[in-house]
Amino acid sequence: MKKVFIALFLFIALLQPVMAADYFDVSLSFGQASYKWPEKGISFTYGFNVGLTSRLEMNLWGISELVPMPFQSNMFGLDLTFALLGDRSTASKVAGSGLNTLVSIGGFYRLDNNGAGPIISITPLSVGSPVSGRRERILKTGIGYDAVNNEVVVTFSLISIDYYLRGTWRDYSF
User: Fold this and answer.
1) Are 151 and 115 in contact (CB under 8 A)?
2) CA atoms within 13 A on the CB side of 85
3) Which among 127, 123, 18, 106 has a CA at the least distance from the CA of 60?
4) Among residues 154, 106, 101, which one has the least CA distance to residue 123?
């Protein structure tokens, strides 16, 4: 647990220069997800997203099991996400692309078996933008390689919703 707090502190410390950037927006995300195949229960995803440029954002995310044993199985990750179909944000009151496709590259860590490795995922449909204050990610699918346990990890999320705390229409003067 001590390692998790140190990693989180370093993440926040390294994020400070980014917070001064024009495209800086912050969102919290929640939704349904799984990373066990086949799924034997109900899991959910949660995260913290930070916009870096007009097309690039950084995501700190987690997937936790709810049923049958709450938080018995957890997976955490950090990735960079690139918007393929247009700007996700324009750093102004003008919204970016309302429909987008997202590609993510990053890494993960599993608490249940101390597994870790790289992961790549695609979100074929993303509806909304930071300026509108909300974005839905639909059918996010990822594949990773657990190098510690020599396993392939498949993640899937039917839908997750990002609620923007900064970078919305309220933050730009008209």
Assistant:
1) yes
2) 15
3) 106
4) 101
